[in-house]
## 1
Amino acid sequence: MEPGKLLENSELGLRILAGENGLNRKIRNEDVNRPGLALAGFYRNFAHDRLQVFGQGEFAYLLDCGGEVEGRIKDEFFSYEYPALVFTHGNQPPSCFIKKSNETDTPLLQTTLSTHDFILNFNRIITRALAPQTSIHGVLIEVFGLGVLLLGPSGIGKSETALELIERGHRLVADDMVHIRHMGKGELIGESDPMIEHHMELRGIGIVNIKDLFGVGAIRKKVQVDLVVFLEDWKEDKEYDRLGIDEQTMEILDVSIPSITLPLRPGRNIPILVETASMNHRSRRMGFHAARSLSERIHSRISQQITEDAERENPPKKERKKASPKPLMGPV
């Protein structure tokens, strides 16, 4: 990401003060650096590859330092190359900073935000920009709060299935091209290409705008990808999962996402099956696994039946009661 892109983001409230020729520098680190120690002359392990943020403390130090210290700071500090320098709280940098920024083509930026708010907004924006990403041909729709990615060959009916789900009250995220980003900790966020956002292609009808037809309640900007559903034509020679004990997964950006395969056949209501799969996936995440629970009950009943049959075939022998010995002499 480039500092010039940060200027285009209204959440940061940035404006350029100097060093415009360096706006094409690359920001390759998600973290920021507060250069207080560097201003005081300590440069060991100095993170100069990060965005340098000057808060109230750094700004106050620059105002209080004398001419000799200011000269040292000017020479030593600007011997490093930075992605950009940012002064928060609307503070005006010293004239020496503006001069050296222009000389070294270092972007010098200013924002009216507090240091805390700026860093929060910057971290959110840069994390998204630097996150690993990929694009997948499919349809992403929110079903019962879960992000369901519909995949399958072209013309299999992904868009038609999504349209029926929208009619049933669910929300479209992306059709045809789904952009997916890995935001860390196994979280995959899917969204639409801005150019085709809210639009859907239906063979025989053409391009439709879901927002215009069904309202803003039928769309969503982005959603976490929780489940992948493969749609394919029914193959007589293929054995499909009928129990659901073993879970399938699909690797996307090195993250394993639960997946299922739904074979298409005349008479099968695919939208209802997708809804059921979503509810079943949510139930599993809460710790309730219907297939495994039933399997355990069946195995428990079989074990109990085997034990009962074994007891009937080999009943336990009754032990005879031993007679108590008679006393040798009667009562005196």
Note: The longest helix spans residues 290-313.
## 2
Amino acid sequence: MKVNHFLAPLRAMGCFLAAVVASASVSAQVKWDLATGYPESSFHVQNLREFARDVDARTNGQVSITVHSGGTLVKAPDVRQAVIDGKVAAGEVFGPSLSAIHPVFSLDAIPFLATTYPAARKLWQLARPLAEKKAAAQGFAMLYSVPWPPQGMFSAKEIRTVGDLQLMNMRENSPSVRKLAEALGAKPVLVETPDLVSAVQSEKVSLVFTSAAQGVDTKMWEKLPWFYQTNAWLPRNAVIINKKALDALAPEQRDALIRAAGAAEERGWQLSEQNARDTLKSLKDNGAKVGLMDASLRSRLDKIGTSLSGDALKRADPELLQVLSSYVSIR
């Protein structure tokens, strides 16, 4: 009988340890899929893979993220909804594609609003709290956001003056870019990102604003040999996560994930700047003609930018107006 009294505490301790082990085992089974439509060669995908490795290291293997690139798991246009619906835990989307939720997600796509990395970073810092609020209402959270290099202009012909742009078929994929095309006297042609290569190859468009990075990835110079560094805007990709999946993590796992996301954002901005330098060189090495803009064209672009920014201010709701006003006051 005394032996039983002696063993009772040990049995209780054994049950406690078993529960701890079982709990740890459940935590170790957190396995997520992360979908992106971008190719393996993209610096964004390279950053995603480093992010996944970092999460694994910071959680001691308790949270494992498998990155599916190139639209192999979910096609690019469907990633946002797949995350919201919980079909995948996380995904990477083109930030401005979230503008249907709220225009705060497309501030970075307003031509000539933020044309340098420091300006783009400041805009994101000011916009982030509102973006996170709107994302949460939709059932997802923002993990991190990284810009593409500044958008330049690819053209089928040399552009010397504003007049050379008249009636050229210009690719547009957002209301602000459509307005830019109209202001330049070009003909806007709607082409979504997945269709861009075929639209260029088939000569459906002869004028495209995009980054040197995308120009290299798609060999834009084959049909549009002229490139002009307009630094029109720096659109961001956003890595998002299903809010229920995030909230289901143990606190220490969630904290580790957020820290890894912060590191990925900082690393991604550095990768973007390096990519901007590398891809411009690659364009030149592949025979693209990097042209110089006429002063009148530069002036015209700046005036259009001022007009588009003014339009955004007029249309903004009180929350967005506060973000824009804060940015304009320190720009």
Note: DSSP finds eleven helices and eleven strands in the chain.
## 3
Amino acid sequence: MVVVNANNWHWVDKNCIDWAQTYFSNNLTSLTAATTTGNESVKITSIDKLKGDVEVCQRKGKLISLFDLVLNINFETDEKEKGSINVPEIAYDTEPDEYQFQINFNNQSSTKNDLYRSLIKEKLIPQLREKLSMFGTDLITSQGSDILIDNDQVTSKYTAELTSQSIKSQNQKPVVKSKTTLNKSSSSTTTSTTKSKTGDKTTSFKLNPSTFQTTQEQLFDTLTQPQYVSMWTRSKAEIQPVENTPFKLLDGLITGTITKLKPVETVEMNWRLSNWKENQYLKLKMNLSKGSDGGETILNVSFEDCPSDDEGIVRGRWEDWLFGIRFSFGGIV
């Protein structure tokens, strides 16, 4: 890529999605994990799907990376059982400890799925998390040089200094931030722990109320109409605001049934991730009410019978979605 950009002043961007595909193939397909006995093992075999946007940008001497990706990885066990690991969001502003991983087995009836799932969570996912945390830095290092003019050709001391600072900061290794009162999840704590019909431990919890600068009618439509749901999930949504009808989100990673609708007030669903056991659903309830200001609507979201191991995934996904809806109307999430 040839750049004609006096003093590195003007905005330049570079599409790097093809590079990202090669990067993940080279850096992830060599990862393996094994039990302490060595009798069971799992290895990453290929990148099944990479969708989204990846760009390196420069203006006024500053290099930045912007990316928002969905990654699907194939794996295989020592017994030749196959499956996939879905990472629903890899974004430029995501902390390494916030990455979420959804594990799916092609053969849902295998008796050793639980063993391999534990192995993946304990030994393979930490490796994936470390590799993903370096993506932004490696992206800048590999793809940023050809959208910058060399500093010895920059006559502006201001942009030359910005360029040097930008390169230096991008070469620093990302650090996993500890949760503080400023960056903790806004969700309430889990309210109870029980066992589901499948015998798995489940939890019930709710998110803190969210206030939106819009009417109940508009927010209700945003939560139930396919054209709006597609916007805040950032994927095609197969859903209709009709009771007892199925829905599918994120290419089938999330499915369920709308069980109850009370226009402008209530939405209830049976909701599941694709890697959960057959017929295992959580109960999702969304209640809408008027705020103290006539132009505000308050949304309360609660969950029942969520598998304990996946509470963080469900909670994080809905927090991200609510944050996205916020920008449609404004308000406090």
Note: The radius of gyration is 23 Å.
